[in-house]
Recover the amino acids of this structure.
């Protein structure tokens, strides 16, 4: 088979080839697989000691094998966006909850097994198609067919790069759970604070009456 006939076999209709291979891959991948789960958490704490609690929270995250992705801090509130290894989110949150008064705590779990399998199959098929196009290109002898194959190769590579990028992001989310922590300053009035508040209320009432 010469270069022209090879190009004609792949360039005009690459999508059906990929679709057929994709369908076959789905059949082969029908065997049971481990579930791919993404866990995310949100935790809000109230405390009079914002900076100290934030520092302790970072220590707990690191102790469980996690790390801080982002930190926003001002005088009355600290926001932490952290990652902890999959399977350690609940344990980490339970320990973090001891640092202050919990105003909100939630864990969400999303099953992404089907999306993961789909992306694996698409990546595998696109790589096969890319290699076939490269072999056809090596045998091409005419400028027109070479340009056509180059165009198709560029399209396949762009699609492959996009899916591989999404796959890496998903793998990160599966391996490390995302946890958003909000630490807000909240003064806890003691006995003297309550007395002062009561005295102020009395003076205010007397002023209104006068």
């Amino acid at each position: 088979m010469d270069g022209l006939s090879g190009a004609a076999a792949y360039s005009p209709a690459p999508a059906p080839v990929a679709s057929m291979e994709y369908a076959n891959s789905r059949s082969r991948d029908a065997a049971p697989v481990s579930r791919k789960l993404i866990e995310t958490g949100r935790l809000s704490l109230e405390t009079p000691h914002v900076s100290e609690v934030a520092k302790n929270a970072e220590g707990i995250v690191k102790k469980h094998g996690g790390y801080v992705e982002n930190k926003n801090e001002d005088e009355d509130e600290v926001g932490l966006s952290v990652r902890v290894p999959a399977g350690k989110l609940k344990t980490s949150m339970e320990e973090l909850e001891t640092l202050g008064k919990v105003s909100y705590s939630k864990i969400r779990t999303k099953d992404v097994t089907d999306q993961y399998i789909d992306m694996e199959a698409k990546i595998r098929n696109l790589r096969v198609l890319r290699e076939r196009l490269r072999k056809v290109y090596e045998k091409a002898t005419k400028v027109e067919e070479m340009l056509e194959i180059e165009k198709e190769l560029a399209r396949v590579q762009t699609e492959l790069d996009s899916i591989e990028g999404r796959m890496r992001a998903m793998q990160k989310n599966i391996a490390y759970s995302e946890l958003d922590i909000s630490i807000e300053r909240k003064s806890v009035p003691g006995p003297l604070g309550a007395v002062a508040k009561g005295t102020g209320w009395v003076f205010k009432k007397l002023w209104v009456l006068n």
Q: What stands out?
A: The radius of gyration is 29 Å. The first helix runs from residue 3 to 10. The chain has one domain: 1-210.
